[in-house]
Design goal:
2 copies of one chain form a homodimer. Chain A is α/β, with parallel strands linked by helices. The model of chain A has no long low-confidence stretch (mean pLDDT 94). The first copy, chain A, is built from 12 helices and 13 strands. Chain A is globular, with a radius of gyration of 22 Å. Chain A is 37% helix and 13% strand. At the A-B interface, helix 1, strand 1, helix 2, helix 3 and strand 4 of A face helix 1, strand 1, helix 2, helix 3 and strand 4 of B.
Chain lengths: 430, 430
């Protein structure tokens, strides 16, 4: 267990930040830039093993971010690493794929009841962008419907990055709001090619939300009625919530489903699964990349998925998630703090009610959510790595001891928040 | 050396193709689909070592494609594999990058005289798409100029894939034609954000062409005169032609340079290098991916580049390329066949003059270039893997013996072509 009394000196991290500032824009870019995090979060890491990670100064943390999702079985999982290493030793990146590509495609089609084929790339964005292209090519129409505020990757087409690269051809609807979907279809005016939907609502800074049965079935029915393609963006939730795909418990099947992150336990691979009706379109619409056929990450994915099945990994993650959520809810209440924990327990998000009034939903300005920032900073001091405003990710390597250590650290962190914000209202107990 | 009399049975490849056809669209997608290649080219591979590769049936080939570029030092290079494995064992994909990211950025800035910073991703396309976004963000303008027929990645923005995802905001010019660049700038009508240019012209099915000094200096001057960003697409040539960047011998420096392929000897990483003047823009314009911070591929890149430097790898590749080009030219002439070998010797392309009349530049129809198809098929029979119409890539692992085996195989392959196409005119000797 991490040392809770560790002073957590970070001289090596500071030295690396200084070197990075000289040769990397902004010292770091993208989602792993720590500038928006509390000061005591390290920028650089050196080791991961199971559910624990170590920064470059040797400070240990129980990991509730899992590299923003990719780590599913735990860091440096011996079975996955062995499978990948066996490929890397002899083959990996050649003039054609290896046998592992076929094996992985067969496995994915086998575990995904509605899917007939699989396609592989490197980024989740590769899969979501290509899915939109396939929907357009298959229907001969242009408009892709997507939820306002949803993240589908950092491509210009999703983020409308800068002039000349608009969020071309997308029309917004509101998650879990069928009336808004109907309005978007009307706005498309006969040009409705496809609807992109996240497995659940996981926009930053606000409560997470599971899809309602009515919404999921409704978008399926509307796509069918209009001959449009239903695209599930399962990049964030895939393989962590249900091995069959995150909408399987709802009994609603998409036409295309995009995966990345957890599929290979950290090895770089993304996937698009689809139906036979779209196979010919995929066969003719070019998309490719230098490393898309590498067999190491494919072997890692086969090992990850089969290990999750054999060890009932998802059930274990769920149980750990329940234990964590219940424990933190109990400790927050004990300190008279009103918090909300939303989304699946496997991918938790914790918000302080009293932070809401101050919150500004802009990732690149200083974030006025002082309670959760203090809470996560206090956790980090005690060897618990929990992101203040990005949803967390739990791994199958977490033990009850990890969770209980975390709840104990949470108790102290809540106490610190209570002391700092002593004027905050105390919630009524029910 | 490969067995030149090998009958090259491929039952395992055939069985895998059948399985793939059931779960992978078109049996395979993208650039590694072999449907457009001669029948005796294998789809699936199982091993690479140095300059040699083996298909899943155990047939051995001398490799002149190098996985379409990524393999630079040779397959399964011990030094690179060791460096990557050391990272993978302890760290790789964590909540932040490792020290290797800083080391790699420092190395790239050090070897690239004009570059001040480095940024990393997974696909060459990630780097070219982001470069265009940065050019737009930095200038507040929309138009990106690019050469007609040039490949900058399979993103919708470059390929105009399907309705609703046009090649937005790009204007075409002709490679090595400054007048066409000036016309494109006029067409941009004050909205000229940046100019994207390949390190040399390597469009499929036509002769490759090096940039003229006048053209390179001209696009630099025009970008300067208009306050636009010069983007070098060095994805294909980078680290194989000049360690400082492929335009270094011309003395012309871009503002941004995109790398991928050879940078990590097959490990998945791409990079964008740039000037200080664009660092703030990169710092604020979001782009990210699940595996972009992984340290294994960064360690591989450090090892690849330093090994190339220490072993004078580029000089060796160049010498092998000269030996191959001269040998094949000599053998073709001996059989009275008119061929052209164009582009850098490190990345050769061979075209039969008599094929020109029949060639149709459409990758997805049957290609009417019968002589080069037969030539490459005859080479494959003799254990030489040379793509019929994509430029080749040579690795530093090639030996004189490999080249001489290849020239001997080429002699027999030219003889077969001569016999089949006996009516083709014989070139005048000079």
């Amino acid at each position: 267990m991490p040392d809770s009394t560790n002073t957590r000196a970070m001289p090596r991290d500071a030295a690396l930040r200084e070197r990075a500032a000289a040769v990397i824009p902004n010292g770091m870019y993208g989602h792993q830039n720590v500038h928006v995090l509390p000061d005591n979060f390290p920028q650089f890491f050196s080791r991961g093993e199971g559910a624990h990670i170590w920064d470059v100064d040797g400070n240990e943390y129980i990991d509730y971010l899992c590299s923003y999702g990719p780590i599913l079985l735990g860091h440096a999982h011996p079975g996955v690493d062995r499978a990948a290493a066996a490929e890397l030793e002899t083959s990996d990146c050649l003039n054609g794929p290896g046998e592992k590509m076929v094996e992985l495609a067969e496995l994915l089609v086998d575990i995904t009841p509605w899917a007939d084929w699989a396609w592989f790339a490197k980024n989740g964005t590769d899969a979501t962008v290509y899915a939109a292209t396939v929907a357009r090519a298959a229907t001969g129409r242009g408009a892709i419907l997507r939820a306002g505020g949803a993240y589908h990757g950092s491509a210009p087409t999703w983020m409308g990055l800068e002039r000349g690269s608009p969020a071309d051809g997308t029309i917004e609807y509101s998650y879990n709001d069928l009336a808004s979907v109907r309005a978007a279809i009307d706005a498309a005016d006969g040009d409705f090619a496809g609807l992109m939907v996240s497995a659940f609502k996981h926009d930053v800074f606000i409560d997470q939300e599971m899809p309602t049965q009515e919404f999921a079935q409704g978008v399926r029915d509307l796509c069918d009625a209009h001959g449009a393609v239903l695209i599930l963006d399962d990049v964030r939730g895939g393989f962590r919530l249900d091995i069959r795909g995150s909408w399987a418990p709802l009994g609603v099947d998409p036409d295309l489903s995009a995966y990345c992150k957890a599929i290979g336990n950290g090895y770089p691979i993304s996937a698009l699964l689809g139906r036979d009706s779209l196979a010919k379109t995929v066969g003719r619409v070019m998309a490719t990349g230098s490393y898309w056929y590498s067999s190491g990450p494919m072997a890692a994915a086969v090992a990850t998925i089969t290990t999750m099945q054999e060890t009932s990994g998802i059930a274990h993650i769920h149980a750990m998630g329940e234990r964590l959520r219940n424990g933190l809810a109990d400790r927050a209440a004990a300190h008279g703090l009103a918090i909300r924990q939303t989304g699946p327990v496997e991918m938790p998000l914790l918000i302080f009610d009293a932070d809401d009034a101050d919150a500004k939903a802009d990732l690149f300005t200083l974030l006025e959510v002082p309670r959760v920032r203090m809470f996560s900073a206090e956790l980090a001091k005690r060897g618990v790595y929990m992101h203040p405003f990005h949803n967390g990710f739990l791994s199958a390597a977490l033990t009850k001891e990890d969770i209980d250590h975390t709840i104990a650290a949470g108790d102290e962190a809540f106490a610190a928040v209570r002391a700092q914000f002593s004027d905050d209202p105390t919630p009524e107990t029910n």
